[in-house]
Amino acid sequence: MKKLDIIYEDKEILVVNKEAHKLTIATEKRENNTLYNEASNYVKKQYPKNKIFIVHRLDRDTSGIVIFAKNQDKKLVLQNNWENVKREYIAIVEGKMPKHSDVLKDYLSESKTLNVYITKDKSKGKLAITEYEVLKESNKYSLLKIKIKTGRRNQIRVQLANIGNPIVGDKKYGSKDNRLKRLALHANLVEYQEKGKSYHFEAKYPKEFMKIFNEN
Question: In CATH, what class is 84-216?
């Protein structure tokens, strides 16, 4: 087991850099190899009665910043303010983007099998807003900086696939390129303010992301 990659820690929060291929927290299936379990074991080593609380999640194959709270009150404070938290991602998508930068606005719904899809029926979907900017591109790929204005499930993946630029490694939403053996999506920045104090956390995207561009 790899050592927990801690970005920041104080009395109330623990901020870590999650690796790809790891669940944030267990699903219905019994799963012990989760980031939550690693964080829980870490704080219990400091004091056996310590607890950890999940504030938000990343998909199993997405890497990057995850924030845990060390008490229930802090968890609720962060979750209740989550819409005001600035979140940025780095992604590599297939092909060139239609525009150098754009804001994608779509209504998302979920099937019974939990597949997220875009619907034109506003009454059946929830608005998802994703802003992107091209940082680098080649003939086959584009490196994007992404800001999400809403927190819908799989919104980045679904919206990019919808315009013909699925994230590399995202077989679920149409990618046929898995050369990185992972989803090329990384949560690289989280910022928020609380009680007059600013919090800024960064986790640089994995080195393997640039391999694609070095090879093309």
Answer: alpha beta
Domain ranges of the chain: 1-80, 84-216
Catalytic pick among 5, 59, 61, 121 = 59
* N residues, the chain: 216
Question: In terms of Cα–Cα distance, which of 187, 148, 203 is closest to 62?
Answer: 187
pLDDT at 202: 97
Q: Do domains 1-80 and 84-216 have the same CATH topology?
A: yes
Q: What is the rounded CA–CA span in Å between residue 169 and residue 96?
A: 16
**Sole residue written with tokens 């800024």:** 200
Find, among 142, 133, 130, 129, the residue nearest to 100 by Cα.
133
How far the first Cα of the chain sits from its last, in Å, is 34
CATH 3.30.2350.10, applies to 1-80 = yes
Q: Residue 89 CA to chain centroid, in angstroms?
A: 7
What whole-number distance in Å separates Cα of residue 170 and Cα of residue 50?
A: 37
pTM over 0.85: yes
Is 59 part of the annotated catalytic residue set?
yes
- Closest alpha carbon to 119 in 105, 103, 98, 130: 105
Question: Among the listed ranges 32-36, 71-75, 95-99, 126-130, which one has the minimum average pLDDT value?
Answer: 32-36
